[in-house]
Specification:
Rossmann fold; Hypothetical protein af1432; 2 domains; 16 helices; 7% strand; elongated; binds fe (ii) ion
Length: 338
């Protein structure tokens, strides 16, 4: 069994020493205290895998201490320890927040089994909690993308279509598993910063003025600001969104990065974005044939686009013809996060 962080609360020095020695012998990291108030402070400050709590401490009633521990550590298993076994005592302890109840002196084998069970339960709970957080995160990303596309009928499904093309290029270039999923996620989110761009500018039918174009150019940085606080652990995805308008020759924005300084995902998105922009209707022009997109990408290889990616894109003409004729596929619609 893996090492656990355990807090043992008991006012009897002999019990404290015994618990500490037995648990330390099994490799656990044990903190002990005789005092209920100090235990509450410790739990507020640190996280434990398990709390062993004596119910007859001086100064604070057992049930009250359990309730306050539960409040501060909602998912940590608590085993209540008592010198007097009674059904009423066990029921009261469970009602106050304990998960288990043991009578002192606890035999070493019994202690070891209870610790094992409690820690396993705690880890299972943690995994479930992390899964729920991930789902919540996923939903907030979905609603960000949906609100962007609801704002602009001309970009309906744009993010998903760019994600489809990006994903297929990434696979053709050898990406798989988590790396592939992160690239696809960046593609889905690439234009999220347009939420911060004025609708008048976004939906303008004619050419943009210099000021309007300057305003649109802010969207990668706005995207970075939106995503950074909610994407802990996804710095590569945030960076790909920030740099999706960098050109291979260094004349892009917002940072003027060049060549392989630009994240790979951003370089692929640049190609996929161009393909979808050309083959979709826009307020100022109708959709053009896929052939036109191949021409633009081939001509821009080495200047706007990474030549290696442009070559792979061009070699997959058959795939893109099918993409233009269909709605976004299941790969693009998937928002899996690894
Ligand atoms: Fe963009």
């Amino acid at each position: 069994m893996s090492v656990a962080r355990i807090l043992a609360i008991d006012d009897d020095p002999l019990v404290r020493a015994t618990l500490r020695d037995l648990l330390a012998l099994e490799g656990h990291d044990v903190s002990v205290t005789a005092d209920g108030e100090q235990a509450l402070e410790l739990v507020a400050r640190e996280s434990f895998d398990l709390i062993l709590c004596d119910l007859s401490l001086p100064g604070i009633a057992g049930a009250q201490l359990l309730e306050q521990l539960r409040e501060r550590a909602p998912i940590t298993p608590i085993v209540a320890l008592t010198g007097y076994a009674s059904v009423e005592g066990a029921v009261a302890a469970m009602k106050a927040g304990a998960n288990d109840y043991a009578t002192k002196p606890v035999r070493p084998a019994d202690l070891s089994r209870r610790v094992d069970e409690a820690v396993r339960r705690s880890r299972r709970h943690l995994v479930r909690h992390q899964r729920e957080l991930k789902m919540l995160f996923l939903k907030s990303i979905r609603s960000l993308v949906m609100s962007l596309e609801a704002k602009d009928p001309y970009t309906k499904n744009h993010s998903l279509k760019v994600a489809e093309v990006t994903d297929q290029i990434a696979v053709a270039m050898g990406y798989s598993g988590e790396a592939r999923q992160r690239i696809r996620l960046a593609a889905i989110l690439h234009d999220v910063g347009k939420i911060g761009i004025s609708e008048t500018v976004l939906h303008k039918g004619g050419p943009l003025t210099r000021e309007e174009f300057g305003h649109i150019m802010e969207h990668p940085l706005i995207g970075e600001r939106i995503l950074q606080p909610i994407m802990d652990g996804y710095a590569d995805v945030v960076a790909a969104v920030k740099h999706e308008h960098e050109r291979f020759d260094g004349r892009g924005y917002p940072c003027g990065l060049r060549g392989e300084e630009i994240p790979f995902a951003s370089r692929v998105i640049m190609v996929a974005d161009c393909f979808d922009a050309i083959t979709s209707n826009r307020p100022y022009r109708d959709a053009q044939a896929a052939e036109r997109a191949f021409e633009v990408v081939t001509r821009g290889a080495g200047s706007q686009f990474d030549p290696a990616i442009a070559e792979v894109f061009d070699s997959m003409r058959g795939t893109w013809m099918a993409t233009v004729a269909t709605e976004p596929g299941p790969a693009a619609a998937s928002l899996e996060i690894c």
